[in-house]
Amino acid sequence: MKRLLLCLVPLIASAHDLWIKKVPQGYQLNYGHLHITQTHGGQKIMPYDPETIQSIICHKDGKVESIENPKHYPLVVTQKCDELFITMDHGYFTKTPYGTKHLPKNAVKMPLKSWYSIESVKRVEKNSKESIGHGLEIVLLNNPTEVGDKARLLVLFDGKPIQGVVVAYGDKPRGQSGADGRVNIRIKQPGLQNIKATLRQPCSDEKCDEMVYTTTLNIEVKE
Amino acid sequence: MKKALLSMTLSSVALFAHHGVASLGVAGLEGPGAPIETTSSATLPEGKMLGYMKLDYASYEKFTPARDDETDTSYYWMYGLGYGFTSYLSGYIFAPYYTKQLENGDETSGFHDINLMGVVGFKYDDGFLLTPSNESLDDLEDWHFTLFANVSLPTGNSELTDRNGVRYDAGLQLGFGEPSFMIGASATKWFGNNWTFTADTSYNTFLEHRYNDGVKVKFADETRLNTALSYKLYTHAQKKLRIDANFEANYLHLGRDKENGVPQIATGGDILYNTAGFRLFYNNISAAIGLKVPVWTQLNEEALQQGSEGKENYRIIFSFSTLF
Questions:
Q1: Which chain A positions have a beta carbon within 8 Å of B133's beta carbon?
Q2: Domain boundaries in chain B?
Q3: Which residues contact A81 (CB under 8 A, 6 or more apart)?
């Protein structure tokens, strides 16, 4: 297990965060760096293209509702949701000797490595412990309230448990989902939690080498 | 002097414990360390096998300058194979090979009694549960425990004789002649950083054996209590290499052996050892080396117990294990 984790350390450490912040108008989707890191310093918000937002799903009182993308930066969802799940489709990326291009593998010269990136984030306000059933998703199975508690997680892909998904906390890999999709992460700092899972699968066509799914779970833990 | 030999063989019997299992050595760079003598609470991953080899070399203090029948050195080799039946149940078979040398040149050498061992792992995580198959690093910070039981089968030769046809002392034989039994428990706490604490205790008992010459011997019961601190000294991510330092306190209580029902003098006592050493993890292998010395002894008849536990100059322990 750890051998795989080690391989993923550089990938996860360099990745950006996606998080949903509570604002007076509702919930705002942010992209950048949530926490202070040695590499990036303090919190840093970076712009994103609202067109990349693929879906906005609101889970309220046991009902799942899709919200239309207003295609406005930054995205602010004004509806009240128990759980808000937002997916971004970043498309193809190909690494070449002359830099990383935002293009599929078959559209560049000398492709070295290519991937298709789909990123999602779920903010839990009131834990339903249920799946939204959409792509890669982390379901919170308990209600951690303070630092030291364990977040008991279920990692699903299209609503089904999936094994071997690397889960990181504080940009450090902490474990992998088991055959039942379960993995536990201990809360180590107060505030907004960013628990991130990454799944890599082979690409189904010649346009990329792999599909990279990343999903983040946001929960608030008291200061 | 001879009686002291009785205990000599036995002390190594309990060293079958599954310490040094490279359960995390396979993975390696994170997670709890594993001591050298103290039994860690790691179980084998389900469906995985462990190959194990250990040498415990002992050099004994001599009481007289004469070249007599004092115990000189011993080499306790251990070859083992383990299998993870489930994430919480591991089974082992051990084949010991002992060489015991006296100052006068006499020696016995060969395979000792085969041992079978079962280990059940469990942990505390909002309640006790059996060791699960998948644990995150945060799960590995929980207290982990094992219960283990061991039985030795009388496969070794317990009727070895010297060149004059006289049966060697029971302590020099290569078998107990009867089954022996051990039960024990271990606890491990990884603090989520470089430090790991491990402790174990075990109790070993023997059945009385009647030799061909009619003498009946019952080896004394043994109780052990070990504690260890492991410190992660060095890691190299690319090479998948980790080196730990270990420091241990190993307490041993030996009762009195009995011959024909009579408690024997020059047997038994209490010994505290310290063991210091290093463990290396590299890919799916783990190797450890340690120096073990008696730092406190209270033997029953100390001046007569040459060659028994507590009367070593030192012991050198080397172990190697690989998971496959």
A1: 178-179
A2: 2-323
A3: A27, A58, A59, A60, A123, A125
N residues, chain A: 223
Report the share of chain A in percent with pLDDT over 70: 90
* H or E element, residue A6: helix A2-14
Q: Is A23 on the interface with B (CB under 8 A)?
A: no
**Backbone phi and psi for residue B255, each to the nearest 5 degrees, phi listed first:** -80, -170
The string over B89-102, giving b where at least 16 C-beta atoms fall within 10 Å of a residue's C-beta and e elsewhere, is bbebebbbbbebbb
Inter-chain contacts counted by CB atoms under 8 A, chains A and B: 49
pTM: 0.86
SS3 B69: coil
ipTM: 0.85
B interface mutation test: which of A6, A155, A182, A188 has the most B CBs within 10 A? A6
CB-nearest partner of A2 from B27, B132, B138 = B27
- Given a cut of 70, whether residue B91 has pLDDT beyond it is yes
Phi, psi of B201 (to 5 degrees): -140, 150
Taking the Cβ of residue B25 and every Cβ of chain A, the question of whether any pair is shorter than 8 Å is answered with no
Domain edges within chain A? 2-221
Say which DSSP state B161 is in.
B
Inter-chain residue contact B30 with A178, CB threshold 8 Å: no
Helix (H) or strand (E) holding B206: strand B195-206
Instruction: Classify domain B2-323 at the CATH superfamily level.
Output: monomeric porin ompg (2.40.160.40)
Q: Cβ of A150 under 8 Å from any chain B Cβ? A: yes
Maximum separation of any 2 CA atoms in chain A, in Å = 51
